[in-house]
C-alpha cells in the first residue's frame, strides 16, 4: 500500500478535526441520552420501590387488622362460653337445690295430705281404674293400661323450674 503524498496530512487536518468534532458531539449526545435514560430508570425504580413499600405497609396493616379481628372474635367466643358455662353451673346448682327441697317435703307434716292430693289428681286424669303407687323419693306414679302419669316430687319440681325458665334465667343475666 502506498502512503499519502507529502502535505496530505496538512490538508486532511481540517477534515480530521471536523470528524473528531462530530464524533465528540455524537458521543456527548449518546452520553446525554444514556444519562437521561438512566435518570428515568432510576426514577421509575424509585417509584416502584415506593409502591412496593406502600403495598407492603397496606398488606401488613390489613393482616394486622384481620389478626386483631380474629383474636377479638376468639376472645368474644371464649367470654361467651365462660358465661354459658357459669350459667349452666348456676342452673345445675339451682336445680339440685330445688330437687333437694322438693324431696325434703316428704318429711313435712303436710306430706300425707299432699300425697293424697297427688293420688286424687292421678285418678282424675287417668280414670278410676288407675293404679297409683308412691315413689320412694316422694310423690306418686299412676298407670292405666299403657298410659302413665308421673307426679313424683322430683318431676313436679323440675316441671315447675322449667315453667319458670324466663324468671330463673333473669337471675344470672342481670
UniProtKB/TrEMBL annotation:
It comes from the Bacteria. This is V-type ATP synthase subunit E. It comes from Demequina capsici.
Amino acid at each position: 500500500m502506498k502512503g499519502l503524498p507529502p502535505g496530505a496530512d496538512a490538508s486532511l487536518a481540517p477534515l480530521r478535526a471536523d470528524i473528531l468534532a462530530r464524533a465528540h458531539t455524537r458521543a456527548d449526545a449518546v452520553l446525554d441520552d444514556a444519562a437521561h435514560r438512566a435518570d428515568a430508570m432510576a426514577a421509575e425504580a424509585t417509584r416502584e420501590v415506593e409502591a412496593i413499600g406502600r403495598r407492603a405497609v397496606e398488606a401488613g396493616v390489613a393482616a394486622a387488622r384481620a389478626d386483631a379481628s380474629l383474636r377479638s372474635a376468639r376472645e368474644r367466643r371464649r367470654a361467651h362460653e365462660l358465661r354459658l358455662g357459669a350459667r349452666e353451673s348456676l342452673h345445675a346448682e339451682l336445680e339440685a337445690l330445688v330437687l333437694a327441697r322438693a324431696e325434703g317435703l316428704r318429711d313435712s307434716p303436710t306430706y300425707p295430705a299432699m300425697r293424697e292430693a297427688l293420688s286424687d289428681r292421678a285418678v282424675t286424669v287417668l280414670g278410676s281404674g288407675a293404679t297409683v303407687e308412691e315413689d320412694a323419693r316422694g310423690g306418686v306414679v299412676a298407670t292405666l293400661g299403657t298410659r302413665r302419669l308421673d307426679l313424683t316430687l322430683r318431676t313436679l319440681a323440675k316441671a315447675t323450674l322449667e315453667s319458670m325458665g324466663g324468671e330463673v334465667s333473669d337471675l344470672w343475666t342481670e
